[in-house]
Amino acid sequence: MLFAVKMDVHLPPDMDSDVKADILAREKAYSQEVQTSGEWPHIWRCVGQYSNLSIFDVDSNQRLHDILSQLPLFPYMHIDVTPLATHPSDIALLERNP
Ligand SMILES: O=C(O)C[C@H]1C=CC(=O)O1
Asked: Where in the numbering of this chain does the Muconolactone isomerase domain appear (predicted)?
């Protein structure tokens, strides 16, 4: 199951710099672990925003929720999830099913 996920990060401006550095390091390590597993095949920075647009390829809604809720930045994010379906005009679909 494919999902587009937009994550907007809102860290408190007065967050302690060591706490912030620790959360960001853990976030990077965890996100790269999930990316390596194949369940998070794309992550893009949204230009001009502290946000990313990601694609997840997971087995269930519950699995996506588990991944997202374990992100160290989860308490500081607004997350928008869009389930994806194939588009009938997608030429890649034609190539896969001529
Ligand atoms: O910087 C971000 O977009 C937030 C977050 C998502 C993955 C990651 O490594 O950081």
From this structure: 1-90
